[in-house]
Amino acid sequence: MRKVLKVFGWAIVGLLCIGGVALAMNWTLARNMVVTRGAGITDVELYTPRQVVQGCAGPKLEYYAENTPIPADVFAQMNAFSLEEGGAGLIVMVDGKVVGEAYRDGLDASTKTLSMSMHKSILGLVYGAALADGVIGSLDDRVGQYIEEWSDDPRGDIPLRAFLTMSSGLRNPSFIDDTWEAMTFNLSDKVTKTALTMQPRKKPFEEFWYKGIDSQIAGAALNRAIQAAGKGAYNDYLSEKIWCPIGAGDALLWSETKEGDPRFFAFLEATARDWARIGQMILDKGTFMGKNVLPESYIEAYKTPSQTNPNYGLQTWLSTPYLAERPYNPEGGLTVKQSAPHLAEDVLFFDGYGGQRVYVVPSAGLVIARTGDVNLQWDDAVLVNLALEALQNREGLGR
Asked: Under 8 Å CB-to-CB from 325, ≥6 apart: which residues?
């Protein structure tokens, strides 16, 4: 009996401790810690609350019936590499048509996956629509024009461009040194509020530091501008300006609350086909199957190297100049491998944590969309160079 009471007593103590921690953290943060720890790349339904980016029926993707510019055996090599590295889906397009498309067992073209940081690159594109509409005046506007809390704060003088090029100079909370702030920013229902507490570590445009804080503040500024212009919220505007014009299906945004800000730095969940559509729109200079989506001039600005990093534009990555180990910040830490230079100098790409990618190569008419399990050994050279080598061999044969 005493043993039973002792076990019961410890159980009560455990429950009280868990309850106390949960109350201190808030239940949302506690729940999200559990969800993110156990979720796989396809577990998009676990991330709630969420907002829907409404899709629209549009032109279907075209497929090569024969004489594919990338031979079937090369696509098979590409897919084998992707699968070996935990791949979920792969789609390759050349000159606006699908060369090959493949999914691992149990998945198909309707499967949405976690995009990780690929949302950052979409945020950069939405800014193009907002500039064209006059929702945002200029990328050189001070952020305090759009973030009321900073209207009279020195941080309000930082230009929007600094946030879009990851050079705001604001501190970034890390899970090692700033554990509580990092958890609150990434996992709680106070994402933007936490981002707005960050203080400067450098002056704007003084250093490149790839971080979610910059994307979140840029996104919050944009969302408030969209709402002030009477154009709904960010998810509505993304649907109207980009998602529907390219004929993409519904996508999901993990938001801090049902009506609050999305996580602008990550968690736009979509299909591989829809990521390929986005890549094709960029390749076609802001049009999709003849329909104007974004200004050509903005697409050019989007992929122009930034002041603080020649490998980064407006929330998107550039592979020239070549880096065998691409760092995310000046202190090193996590880097991404690229075992060889790309066989073209105009590769731009979306980088989602652990191998989520959209590669666009305008000079070759090439788009590659790839999703998969998080893999920190991902090599950015392989898929692109397999495709480019096949295309260059084809040109060499006069085809």
From this structure: 335, 336, 337, 338
Hunting for tokens 């498309």 — which residue is that?
A: 101
H or E stretch at 223:
helix 212-228
Q: How many residues make up the chain in this entry?
A: 399
Rounded CA-CA distance 294/85 in Å is: 34
Average pLDDT over residues 67-73: 96
Residue 36 CA to residue 40 CA, distance in Å, equals: 8
Please give the backbone phi and psi of residue 113, each rounded to the nearest 5 degrees, phi first: -130, 165
Most confident of 11-15, 33-37, 374-378: 374-378
